[in-house]
Amino acid sequence: MSAASTTYYDRRGLLGALGRDGLLQIILIANTIIMLAPIVIMIFSAFKTTPQIFQSPFGIPDFTQVGNFVKIWTQTNFLRYLLNSFIVTGASMTLILTLGTMAAYAIGRYQFTGSGFILMFFLAGLTLPLKLAIIPLFMLMRDLSILNNQLSLIFVYTAMGLPTTVFIMTGFIRTLPNELEDAARMDGASEARIMWSIMLPLVRPAMVIAGIQNVVPIWNDFFFPLVFIQNDDLKTLPQGLTTFMGEYTTDWGVLFSGLTLSAAPIIIIYIVLSRQFIAGMTSGAVK
Amino acid sequence: MPHLRMTGRGLWITALIVPPLAFVALFIVYPIISAFAYAFFDWQGLRRGDFVGLENFHTVLFVEPYRSWTINAFKNNVIVFFALMVLQNGLGFILAYALWRGLPGARFHRIAVFLPVVLSTIIVAYLFKLFLHPLFGVVNISLRGIGMGWLAQPWLGQGNTAIWSLIVAQAWHMVGFPTLVFLAGMQRIPGEILDAVRMETESEWVKITGIVWPLVAPSATIVFTLLFVGAFNWFELPYIMAGLDGSPFGSTDVLGLYFYRTAFGNVSSGQQDFGLGSALAVLIFLFVAVIASVITVRLRAREIQL
Predict the structure, then answer these.
(1) How close B146 comes to chain A (CA, Å)?
(2) Which among A166, A219, A230, B145 is least surrounded, fewest beta carbons within 10 Å?
(3) ipTM of the prediction
(4) Distances in Å between the alpha carbon of A18 and those of A26, A238, B99?
(5) Interchain contact, B130 vs A255, CB within 8 Å
(6) B117: closest CA among A207, A225, A212?
(7) Interface mutation vs chain A, best among B93, B130, B226, most A CBs within 10 Å
(8) What residue ranges of chain B are covered by domains with CATH 1.10.3720.10?
């Protein structure tokens, strides 16, 4: 601490500082309770029977009582939805990162006519709310015969993810030094070889940021499956959840276990990688 | 040889740039341009009929019952925007300020406040729908439990409480986003400026309003604009919590639901009208684009360059 801030605390008085920090601490603790309580109640309720939920919604359950989860496992299409979400998200992310890196590498590493225009073209996609173009998208998918096919989702997600990815990765790739590249070129390495063996290993940090920024909205998306997918066996998790919640309306134990299971993958990954998640999801808004 | 090398490189760049460009052109740019074109035609189901000029726009804006529906949904979007401005962005600023102090446990609080943001809106919507259930929901059970049973009510079943229930659920879901954007903005304020301010004033209020708030203006521009765009595209949470018709009696109807209903039909009326739907989409798009640009320009003007 600098001398200035010491004087500040002296003048102000330790009590004043404690009072202010105490108030802020109370605000933070209250907020954290409000943020976590619904999630804790959800998880607790997943291990209770429906009468137990109604009688003691806050009670700590017997965590060995997994009847609700067994029911979900054996009687519902839940695992199918989960698997579908992994397929759609995985395929979209692979395409986004591959194509995004290709475009960003071309724009960021080479000087060519029209590169500025191409970057602008990608950035335009950044600001357009694609939901409002759902009618032409629906017709387009119909014309391509991929309605009721997960390819429709994968293509839309890829297109939606490219603008942010190109934006983040171009900025990063431009900052990489030229020396390595030039040296390899002198040695007669091909452009493809330079990109693959020399430059790509260096862009991994930007790929992580771009990846997280896109993976969360894709994994969580509900709107596009709602329009494109009708077949129950092709539904992704958020969409399947609506079918599931409609079938079990009175069995609250099963409803809460379904919600808990749906939330579990992303909560676990978030807790492990919270720093990367926060950086990735706010990277569009924080410069 | 140099010439050949250049063509080789040209081909290489083309190969890199064309596939991603094709995706964006086919699945973003083309649909958005088409959305404008669709609005000028009469549609029979999935078949495009005659060119009708501005008739679809006229219908959704001036012909009953569409006129009342449009006004009602728009009015609700405005309420949602201003309410979230206070609940989500206002609270976000306060939380960011508290986190910025670096008090014990700040790291934990930071992770907690962002946790609901990573959840699917569908999960959040169902969770709050169950909590707000009139008989078995944890909210009413708790109210009865602490002797305030007279406050227990069918939150989602009454016009005056339904929209506010949705707003609170949305604020819980997303408050972590403005919080961490504001926090990042505060962390960029140089230490020398803060030390200088501490010499000048003892008032926390002066420090916040005079220094911190102006210096996080770039963060404010971004979260205000994003909230505006988000509020006028609001769909998932009301769709799950209140249904496609914005029940009860349209009290939770918003432009997103109304647009979807008009375009794709709903359970009660199976008819879909792509012409009217597209006209609504174009109007929402133009409104959001114009106002969002105005907000951004106006707010940018008050940003201070450090």
Answers:
(1) 13
(2) A230
(3) 0.90
(4) 12, 46, 15
(5) yes
(6) A212
(7) B130
(8) 64-301
Identify the bridge partners of residue B47 per DSSP, sorted by sequence position.
Answer: B44
C-beta neighbour count of A248 within 10 angstroms = 19
Range list of H helices, chain B? 2-24, 30-38, 55-62, 66-84, 91-100, 106-118, 121-131, 138-145, 159-174, 176-187, 191-200, 204-206, 213-215, 217-232, 236-242, 255-264, 274-301
Q: Which residue's entry shows tokens 């081909």?
A: B11
Q: How many CB atoms lie within 10 A of CB A182?
A: 11
Q: What is the residue range of A102's domain?
A: 77-247
Tell me phi and psi for residue A80, to 5 degrees.
-60, -45
Cα–Cα dist A282/B92, whole Å: 14
Q: What is the reported pTM?
A: 0.90
DSSP type of residue A233? G
Q: Are residues A57 and A81 in the same domain?
A: no
How does pLDDT run across A150-198, given as a tens digit for each residue? Answer: 999 999 999 999 998 998 899 899 888 888 888 888 888 888 888 888 8
Are residue A14 and residue A115 in the same domain, yes or no?
no
The answer to whether the CB of B65 falls within 8 A of the CB of B276 is: no
Residue A278 inside a domain? The answer is no
Q: Which residues of A touch B92 (CB under 8 A)?
A: none
Would A279 be classed as within a structural domain? no
The structure tokens listed for B15 are 């190969």
Question: How does pLDDT run across B240-262, given as a tens digit for each residue?
Answer: 999 888 888 889 999 999 999 99
Helices (H), A56-109: 67-75, 78-109
* Architecture of the structural domain at B64-301: Orthogonal Bundle (1.10)
Check whether residue A138 and residue A177 sit in a common domain.
yes
